[in-house]
Amino acid sequence: xxxxxxxxxxxxxxxxxxxxxxxxAQIYEDTKMMxxxxxxxxxxxxxxxxAVGDWWKTVAH
Length: 61
Hints:
The chain has 61 residues and is mainly alpha-helical. Helix content is 62%, strand content 0%.
């Protein structure tokens, strides 16, 4: 008997690695000319955006 691979590329609808690489490339483009202080502010602000920011607000208080 052979095991079924439920995570085969043929069945995958979301490519996590491609998504991660695209996000990292965008962050790089957004921040490549920033000073260290600007980077700190960028990531501080980014922690308030989107689903992660929404989640953090529920657990932080």
